[in-house]
Design goal:
The complex is a heterodimer. Helices cover 15% and strands 33% of the residues of chain A. By secondary structure, chain A is an alpha+beta fold. Chain B has helices at 10-20, 33-45, 49-54, 56-67, 83-108, 139-165, 171-174, 176-192; strands at residues 117-120, 124-127. In chain B, strands 1-2 form a two-stranded antiparallel sheet. The chains are: A alpha+beta, B mainly alpha. Chains A and B meet through α1 of A and α3, α7 and α8 of B.
């Protein structure tokens, strides 16, 4: 069985790049790329879900990904 | 807990700006900073650093809706985050803004006299004469202040309503400045990657 972990995943097509998720992430695992959308550094993300709750557009979800 | 920076307190500036408009409408001119700084930042750096760091209004909403709990924290409806609505709202905002500039011009040109009202939600004309104590320049200067303060107050009220209904910073989803700076970043990114 492949070991998995929870990760925040951004629907970048509808992300407004406001940066609320960046502010709330205690591990600095999210960045806004070129003012276009948020991008999660999956190596740093522990899937705590803070950004999911914060996102005003609700475009971040938690997903099981391969470790 | 992340360390706080000076720019995490810009919500105070936003709040003070709104309050000053109740005392002297000419302070409304300062609001132009909220128009020019995001545009200049996105044009020069290709980032939405204004939204990401410096937007005092966003901070105010996240304080009121988050810390003070004045938000239901529901998901924003899908149509409100659609491109059609965001771009449509930007265009609508632009049209209303240019109508306001046109009215200002008419006062400058002595075609119309100064109207001491703040128009809320593009509809409700609130008497605002108590905040007008004359101007050293043309009455057009004051007309722009009334018009611009109307824009700022209207967008704050809309933001407060969606803050209560949806997530605290749901204004950010359809904020015309945010949409415009994102478009600038898109344009900059597509030309620089060619």
């Amino acid at each position: 069985m492949v070991p998995t972990k929870r990760n925040a995943v951004v629907d970048q097509a509808v992300c407004v790049a406001c940066g609320c998720c960046v502010k709330v992430c205690s591990l600095s695992a999210i960045q806004i790329l070129h003012g276009l959308y948020a991008n999660v550094d999956s190596a740093r993300c522990v899937g705590c879900g803070k950004c999911v709750r914060e996102c005003p557009a609700s475009v971040i979800h938690l997903k099981e990904v391969a470790r | 807990m992340k360390r706080k920076h000076w720019y995490d307190y810009l919500w105070i500036v936003s709040a003070v700006y709104l309050i000053l408009g109740f005392f002297n409408i000419l302070f409304a001119w300062l609001g132009l900073l909220c128009f020019f700084i995001p545009l200049i930042l996105s044009l020069t750096t290709g980032q939405k650093s204004y939204c990401n760091r410096y937007c005092g209004r966003g901070q105010l909403f996240s304080l009121l809706g988050g810390r003070f709990g004045l938000s239901r924290r529901h998901d924003i409806p899908g149509w409100m985050k659609s491109k059609v609505f965001r771009y449509g709202f930007l265009v609508f905002f632009f049209v209303m803004f240019f109508l306001m500039l046109w009215n200002t011009y008419l006062v400058f040109a002595d075609v119309k006299s100064l109207s001491q009202v703040v128009t809320l939600l593009w509809t409700f004309r609130l008497p605002w004469h108590w905040a007008y104590h004359g101007t050293l320049f043309s009455p057009g200067v004051a007309q722009f202040a009334f018009g611009f303060y109307s824009v700022m107050l209207t967008s704050t009220v809309l933001g407060l309503v969606t803050m209560v209904l949806f997530k605290p910073r749901s204004w950010c989803v359809y904020c015309p400045m945010g949409t415009m700076t994102q478009l600038i970043c898109k344009a900059k990114n597509s030309t620089s990657s060619k």
